[in-house]
Amino acid sequence: MYDLRFAINMEVEGEGYYRHQAQKNRGNALHKVFSDLAEEEFRHAALLRDCEMGRPFTGGDLSSNVFDGLSDFNAETKASPEQADAYRLALDMEKKSIELYEKLRAETQGADEMFEFLIAQEKEHYRVFEEILKLVNRPNEWVESAEFGTREEY
Q1: Residue 10 sits in a domain of what CATH number?
Q2: What's the CA gap between 90 and 95, in Å, rounded?
Q3: For range 4-28, the mean pLDDT
Q4: Residue 148 covered by a domain
């Protein structure tokens, strides 16, 4: 149960981190991304608490998409180094969550479905931050003239 308690604490910390980032990004499209991620981390902690109490997993909704409603997300937005570091830290947090849930899935009897759900959720979060980092780093990667060389579309 130690790992389960650790996982709950990790989700609570993740929720707090994402809420803090949502506050810092108030007034731009990333506010919604971070707010939605905080809500998902909150729900993950609740699922883990239920598991800790011996309650059965009743299923979860994998259809949530933190990019819903972000049609106004501007790829040209300049990110400060501090923001890029926040996204990298979030990537690292999500990677650790995936690794922990894969370990718990292997060690915990009767909770495979819940851990599969959590792994899928955390992989989606990881993908979100990979895309955000790609968008904010794109201007830094286009150092040479766009006239020469092959460029990836975005």
Answers
A1: 1.20.1260.10
A2: 9
A3: 93
A4: no
